[in-house]
From TrEMBL:
Classification via PANTHER family: PEROXIDE STRESS-ACTIVATED HISTIDINE KINASE MAK3, SENSOR HISTIDINE KINASE
The keyword ATP-binding is assigned to this record: yes
Enzyme class: transferase
Biological process, per Gene Ontology: phosphorelay signal transduction system
Enzymatic reactions: ATP + protein L-histidine = ADP + protein N-phospho-L-histidine
Transmembrane annotation, as ranges: 12-29, 267-287
Pfam families: HATPase_c
Protein name listed in UniProt: histidine kinase
InterPro entries assigned to the protein according to its UniProt record, in alphabetical order: HATPase_C_sf (IPR036890), HATPase_dom (IPR003594), His_kinase_dom (IPR005467), Sig_transdc_His_kin-like_C (IPR004358)
GO molecular function: ATP binding; protein histidine kinase activity
Keyword set includes Nucleotide-binding: yes
Length: 503
């Protein structure tokens, strides 16, 4: 089996294993996120039920205070009625009874005024402060804003009725109880936002627009009205608001949404996938770079060693040619031998340049290609027709020796692909910035799946091939000439390799 076929299978297996790991990781993370979300919602529901229960307690306390307030007004009305009866009654026993009722009011502050709003009587105010008329006047103005007055129409005679009004305010005990109720409601609102199971909450009035309190929101943004409005809208879309009746059936609303931790956990699988993917990409890049560096070292080492090993026998061959010239050997034999030695010198020069920075100069590509074809035509099958237009002169920066090596490898591979019979066409196109060299052959097409692998070291379709020719071609074009080489197209008609060089 070809090494690259094995490599491809291993890549697919590893990719499949990585995909399974990622899917399993994402699935398990999603399961955890769902469990945490369910638990958090259960906590929110428990918290909401506790809020409703406490709201019921607050409402019950408020109703109790309403009853106490009504009871105090009833007491004042009875007290006012007793005051009238005490003045108009002629029965001594009744008068004593009414006076006893009047004296029984020791807690509720009362002010009685005449028709002209002059204070004629008062009760249950601080004795020292009551000596100051301004104090009672100020208290009267305050009391008027608290409770409606009770009319005291006392009929003195048949023709004369005394018209008075009785004003009162809550007793000290009731006022203290109301303060307790207000504190209880305020404490309830605070506990709504403090004990909110760590989720962001906003407490609003019945219109859902006026914000009473909020909790677990960003301190930097919480004071921005627009931010709070936007957050309420988000909460409304995410969860149904909790309605709470507080104090005389006033309906307020609690908006909430998932905690910041849960929101982060929802995106965690995608972050995890990104990190795993990034890690795999970096790891692949590092391993690939390391492998390429290692390959480069092997290539350079092999090339240098080959050039060194060829140097000694080549020097010996040159000496033997000179010796044969002195022995009157046939001139044609010496000429052919000299050509082969020259060829070996070129090969040695090529190998010596691998790993070194080659010197690139403006060269006539047409001439370099022609010289290479002249050398190859006598060494390939006579059934292979090579077509190339020599008339067009094109110049580019290249190293003739290395570029000729590229052409030799591509043409030899083309001859093998055509099994020694077919047409090879070479076309040079001069563009404004680049020069395109297209080398086409009528041989067996290259499958699309293998078109990227043919330039890899060790890839070959030949039984005795080493898979180094096209790899060397790619290295010379891309590393030494800063160009590109790729399979432009390959089908049943022809296969075309394109070389791109800078001008």
């Amino acid at each position: 089996m070809n090494i690259y076929s094995k490599k491809q299978r291993w890549k697919l297996l590893l990719a499949g294993a990585a995909t399974l790991i990622v899917i399993a990781s994402l699935w398990y993370t999603n399961v955890l996120v769902k469990k945490i979300a369910d638990q958090e919602r259960e906590q929110v529901q428990l918290w909401a039920e506790a809020i409703k229960n406490k709201a019921t307690l607050v409402n019950y306390t408020s109703e109790l205070f309403d009853k106490i307030s009504k009871e105090e007004r009833n007491r004042i009305e009875i007290w006012a009625e007793a005051s009238k009866r005490a003045i108009t009654s002629t029965n001594d026993n009744d008068i004593s009874f009414y006076i006893e009722i009047i004296a029984g009011n020791t807690t509720i502050p009362v002010i009685v005024v005449d028709e002209k709003e002059n204070i004629v009587n008062h009760r249950n105010f601080d004795p020292e402060k009551s000596k100051n008329p301004d104090f009672l006047k100020n208290e009267l103005e305050l009391i008027k804003t608290i409770n409606p007055p009770i009319e005291l129409d006392i009929r003195i005679t048949k023709d004369y009725t005394l018209h008075q009004k009785l004003y009162y305010k809550d007793s000290k005990i009731f006022s203290e109880l109301k303060t307790v109720l207000d504190n209880l409601i305020e404490s309830f609102i605070s506990e709504v936002v403090i004990n909110s199971a760590s989720v962001p909450v906003i407490f609003t009035d019945s219109t859902q627009t006026k914000i009473i309190e909020y909790g677990n929101l960003s301190p930097d943004k919480a004071d921005i009205p627009k931010y709070l409005e936007t957050t309420i809208q988000e909460m409304k879309e995410e969860n149904e608001p909790i309605s709470v009746a507080i104090n005389h059936n006033t309906i307020n609303y609690i908006f909430y949404k998932d905690s910041e931790l849960l929101q982060q956990l929802k995106f965690y699988p995608f972050v995890q996938f990104f990190i795993i993917g990034l890690f795999l990409i970096i790891a692949y890049y590092l391993f690939s770079t390391s492998r390429k560096v290692e390959q480069n070292q092997v290539w350079v080492g092999m090339a240098k060693e080959t050039a060194h090993q060829l140097g000694t026998p080549l020097s010996s061959l040159i000496a033997w040619v000179e010796y044969l010239k002195m022995k009157d050997i046939d001139e044609n034999t010496i000429t052919e031998l000299s050509k082969d030695i020259t060829r070996l010198e070129m090969i040695t020069e090529r190998f010596s340049k691998i790993g070194s920075i080659p010197k690139l100069e403006d060269e006539n590509i047409t001439e370099v290609i022609s010289q290479t074809l002249d050398y190859l035509k006598v060494r390939i099958s006579k059934k292979v027709s090579v077509q190339f237009n020599k008339d067009h002169q094109v110049f580019a920066k290249l190293n003739p020796s290395l570029f000729s090596w590229v052409l030799e490898n591509i043409i030899k591979n083309a001859v093998d692909a055509m099994k020694g019979e077919g047409v090879i066409m070479i076309k040079v196109t001069d563009q404004s910035q680049y020069i395109y060299i297209d080398i086409s052959n009528t041989g067996t097409p290259i499958p699309r799946a293998k078109q990227k692998n043919i330039f890899e070291p060790g890839f070959t379709t030949k039984q005795r091939g080493w898979g180094l020719g096209l790899s060397l071609v790619k290295r010379i074009i891309e590393n030494y000439h800063a160009g590109k080489i790729f399979v432009k197209q390959s089908d049943e008609v022809s296969t075309t390799f394109r070389i791109v060089l800078n001008k």
